[in-house]
Structures are given as structure tokens and as C-alpha cells.
Amino acid sequence: MDRKTRTDNADAERELANMADGVILTRALAGVAEVQVWKLETLSAAGDDIDDHERVEASAELTMSLCTYSKQVKQMVDSGQSLADIAHLTGLEVDELRLAVSYAP
């Protein structure tokens, strides 16, 4: 295999990894949004009369989604992508991504 082919293969592998990272990140953000929508709908429908169990489940789901989000952003940065690249891929702000990385485990 010549050098150009190896370079092309490495570029293709990197692009696939970036796409997979983007999907994981997008799913985590969808989880955050889902919990936020649930909270708004539930609060508007029930007022303050929300079951404690439901509140705990929503908080747990939100925490898991935020952890996945921050961990994924950190993994993407560690793999060589800049925050600007990730922002372009996801439509998020660089400052928001920087904050996510700061919370990553």
C-alpha cells in the first residue's frame, strides 16, 4: 500500500470517527432537550404537583445526558478536533463546548 492510499485511509477513518462522535453528541443533546421539554410540559400541566419519583427520574436522565455530552466533547477534543470544528459540526457555541469539556470526567 502506497503512502497516498494510507493517508486516504487514515482520513476516511478519521471522518467516520468524527461522524460517529457527532451522532453520540447529538443524541446526548437530544436527551437534554427531551428532559427540558418534559419539565416544561409537566410543570405547566401540573403546576407544583409533580411526583417526587418523576422529578428524580428526570434529574437522573438530565445528569446522564449532560455527562455523555461533556464526555463526548472531551473525547472529540482529545482526538484532535478543535472546539471550532465541533461547533461547526453541531451548531453549538465554542464557549458552550468549552464549558462542557471543563465538566467532563
Task: Explain what you see.
The protein has four helices and no strands. With 105 residues, it is mainly α. It has one domain. The mean pLDDT is 80.
Overview features:
DUF2802 domain-containing protein, mainly alpha, 4 helices, 105 residues, 85% helix, single chain, 0% strand
List the helices and strands and how they pair.
Layout: H1 3-46, H2 52-78, H3 83-90, H4 94-103
Our count of helices gives 4
* H and E string: HHHH
Q: Uncertain segments of ≥5 residues (pLDDT<50)?
A: none
**Overall 3D shape:** elongated
Largest sheet at a glance?
A: none
Summarize the structure.
The chain is mainly alpha-helical.
